[in-house]
Write a structure and sequence with these properties.
The chain is an alpha+beta fold and 237 residues long. The chain is 22% helix and 17% strand. It has one domain. It has five helices and ten strands, in the order ααβββααβββββαββ. The radius of gyration is 35 Å and the shape is globular.
């Protein structure tokens, strides 16, 4: 008899357990807890912006070539070679070189650092020695450069501010120069005299280049009556 009662008790306990565990059963309704929604994985942090890299040193003669000669208004000891990053028209990081006088190093690092951060594209940045000191060849190649001991292009006999190392020309094709005779340099840049155009590398009032140049006190030739859209200088000439 005891065994039968024990067996009956066990059956009752099993039934109660089944009721307790059954989905929707009274015990389940009383004890169930809401299942929290799945937690979304945090979005990956954005990749840090590439750092602007630059170094400054003395200028080897090979980097000057015909762009300097005795009698130039700036001494060799005052010239510096800046090797720095820039974005190309292909959207990739490139390394360029520019020769400037020592007092222009800090302004140029500021300007081109801002240009790099904004991903302003520069076609190429090569020293004038690679063009034999020929400004026309450099402009036709859409080159960005600074020092070149030469006369004003289109106005021989008047020394250029580039001969002092504190002037720079940027993206010469997209930002052409009109000389005192009305000739356009480079010739292929004539179509970019329409400054309402929208094209990569064009310099316009209020853009990252013109703002950065104002911050360092350099003036833009694009505001001259015969415009030189590519040209900026420390003294406005």
């Amino acid at each position: 008899m005891t065994s039968l009662r024990t067996y009956a008790t066990a059956l009752a306990a099993t039934a109660a357990l089944q009721v307790f565990c059954a989905p929707g059963g009274p015990a389940a309704a009383a004890t169930a807890r809401p299942v929290p929604p799945p937690v979304a994985a945090p979005a990956p942090a954005p990749a840090p912006a590439p750092a602007f890299r630059a170094r400054v040193g003395a200028v080897p003669m090979a980097k000057l070539g015909r762009s300097w000669h005795p009698g130039c208004p700036v001494a060799l000891r005052r010239l510096r070679l800046i090797t720095m990053d820039h974005w190309g028209f292909d959207g990739r990081r490139h390394t360029g070189e520019m020769v400037v006088r020592d007092s222009a190093v800090r302004p140029m690092l500021h300007v081109f650092g801002k240009a790099f951060a904004a991903k302003f594209p520069i076609r190429q940045m090569r020293v004038l020695a690679e063009f034999g000191g020929d400004d026309e060849k450099a402009m036709a190649a859409d080159n960005t450069s600074a020092f070149n001991c030469r006369d004003v292009t289109g106005d021989p006999g008047r020394i250029s501010q580039h001969a002092y190392g504190d002037a720079v020309d940027i993206n010469t094709l997209e930002n052409p120069y009109v000389d005192v005779h009305g000739r356009v340099h480079p010739a292929a840049g004539h179509r970019f005299l329409d400054r309402s155009r929208k094209a990569p590398g064009m310099i316009k009032r209020g853009d990252v280049i013109s703002r950065a140049m104002r911050e360092v006190g350099w003036e833009w030739g694009g505001r001259w009556w015969m415009p030189d859209y590519q040209h900026f200088s420390a003294n406005g000439r």
